[in-house]
Write a structure and sequence with these properties.
With 159 residues, the protein is mainly alpha-helical. It has one domain (3-149). Helix content is 77%, strand content 0%.
Length: 159
């Protein structure tokens, strides 16, 4: 097995493991009721939060979890597609890799929220799909800025 193929397999394993994490969090175990059982005692101990203020913190922690989770998935899918579909002359960034990663992440967000509508302790919302898709888009913008706008090494020495 050559080095490129090995890199592609590693990239896909990372993306699939992250996807598995998202799927696991989409179950009843990831419901607000279950996460509050863990988070409230911790935040109450560390910060002395009362139950009312905890509700606000809990909401933002869960939404941050959405953003971080789908941002990470989008980055990992970009890496996986970049390793899988090489383009001649394109080393760092391609709109095709970004587009596929973004739409795959948005699809996962849609399927995740749809799945949650069938669980008694969960609710699937369009707001969460929009949040997750925004995270995927931001991830692709960050990748673009980091990879495409960074000047090549060969030009740094000549400037």
């Amino acid at each position: 097995m050559n080095s490129n193929r090995r890199q592609a397999i590693k990239a896909w394993i990372a993306a699939l493991l992250w996807l598995g994490l998202i799927v696991g969090e989409s179950t009843n175990y990831g419901s607000a009721e279950n996460t509050s059982r863990v988070l409230y005692p911790v935040l109450h101990f560390l910060m002395g939060l009362d139950p009312f203020r905890f509700l606000v913190w809990h909401f933002y922690i869960r939404k941050t979890g959405h953003f971080v989770g789908y941002f990470g998935l989008s980055v990992l899918l970009f890496r996986a597609w970049r390793a899988t579909i090489p383009f001649a002359g394109v080393i760092r960034w391609s709109i095709e890799w970004a587009r596929i990663a973004f739409f795959m992440t948005a699809l996962v967000a849609c399927l995740d929220e749809w799945h949650q509508t069938y669980l008694p302790s969960r609710t699937g919302t369009l707001r969460d799909v929009l949040l997750d898709s925004t995270a995927a888009l931001v991830a692709q913008l960050v990748i673009f800025l980091l990879l495409r706008l960074r000047s090549p090494i060969s030009q740094k020495g000549s400037t």
